[in-house]
């Protein structure tokens, strides 16, 4: 049982987290939000008040914070009395924030794997490079640390666990499919931080197949899916966090991640990548200035948070899980459909931020009421999925299933 | 009658100029080459000696020079006793070098219009913005200044004048077509300085039609040409220097410039331009660094001079000139074919640099022997084209013509 939440970060996902925390502040207690640029926190809090999102009267305060500074994070946790930290800052700050939680005993959550500025897609399993190295430390300190609890990774890990627990006797493959069938109306934009978005796709595509890590290139393996609501969509095998934890829990299953890309995105990506403009390594201009090309690309692209007002259409994210049931082959597709415009109307963010920002708030509520306050480090598939998915049904991300018995909503 | 040449610049075109000057140092006298980075000058001189290019024993010296510093340029002109300056540095230094020539009495040549770092494609006629403002000063100082004496602008201006003088009674249109049908084998590269290359195409496409300036967008107007040697090629109406001087001499004619582009170039260009990566205006990264996107694009692209060893194929550049002859409609195509590999074997540069670098050396020789030492500012079409084209026939850029009488070499 814990209370009082510190949100770290002030981007599009943090905006969703802030609104959802406010909508549930009767459970979560005092709310705090911290970012390098405190004015961005102020704006988020203002938007929370504008929508009268606070369920009950309570604290919501903004703080300036360098989240790479563990001592500063720990000091803020102590000062605010926060027992739950929702880290939705850049993936470069995971380890420093986790360290502060271990130091103070606060529960930790994030939504993406730790990265170092100058490295891309390191040796699989990725979690083994940073987070899992602190597993023993969390256990020793009795610290709850839930890794990757956004939508993907996060909810899709819970879907896989649910399929394995409830719908199949054995699991042969887990294919996670992430389709954004929405339209932002810009010539080109990424849906979240371009730097993080592109970094996902510039390295080796790791999948877990036939009991071993397999390597492919981005856009090398494509598949057309026919999905509920969004219809036929082309998706490509992509490196992604959840492959690296699910393969650890289900080593006998093939685990793959598929992301939908339009030809236009692929073309822009291919041009930028082949020219070297997605590199995280500095280049020197003719004038002698050292510049990281990817940071310049980020600077010229639209701010993803600016897309929200005009974003239309829906996302479909889910897991195709195959295996056997009662000795016969079986397959389920467990999924969620979200709507960009609905997300904007509710919390002022587009659907991609919404799907990533709601789940950590559900997790925080489960830590607050003790259900998920496990006192150790866990990936989402290590935890009982039903209370999590049940809560998500209530707070904006309902789960559906499509299998031999039809396409229907799931309740828990 | 003038002698001793100072070459300013040390890029691919300067390499060609250096070799061609060396091959004709009996006429041109002492040779000097100056650039901000003196090591690049040393490399060029070494390549001249490697090919034993000096026709007679003589001076060839390298100098460090900031060509934006008029006083420094003037001092070097005086120190070296150079009476001829071939400016093949960046187009940002034209006016400071011209000023130094006016001060010292040296003859001036360049191959591209002056540009300021922070402006693109200003009000037509472009020459009116900078160079022509010093026309009276040149005349007063009795300084020969030949503007734009590369291939295009340069040789194509002489072709237009030749067509008007010798093959037509009236001129209705001049369409200059520049096709590079060569292949450099890289995924993408520009053939000369990417910064200058892209700047040519990011602004308004000005053409002179129906007695007035017309504006189009890049890649808006395309035309397929069927040309000698290189065959059918798609070209697009493009803004270019020579349109701005030829329209002044032949205001009754339509004057257009067409450049060949493959779909791949257009795609890369379109992506970079639409994203804002070709902007010459600084942007600020999330980390607060001020960066000019175009300079970063330049930094990641191949150095054009690195293309030369593997470059194959040919260029075709020429003028379609239409009008009347003896009261009947008539058309001529006056053109040159150059070969990338031949250029590399002779001077160590690819064909694009070769076609740009040979003409100013021909012009320098005509200044040295007095023929073009006119003691005033001139665009190439203001000068007698025959000695120029005759000399080019001898030193590497032969002229051909295709008209009702067939396709044949021209002699002068």
TrEMBL record, chains A, B:
Residues 150-396 form the Saccharopine dehydrogenase-like C-terminal domain. Residues 6-146 form the Saccharopine dehydrogenase NADP binding domain. PANTHER family: CARBOXYNORSPERMIDINE SYNTHASE. The lineage of its organism: Bacteria, Pseudomonadati, Pseudomonadota, Alphaproteobacteria, Hyphomicrobiales. This is Saccharopine dehydrogenase.
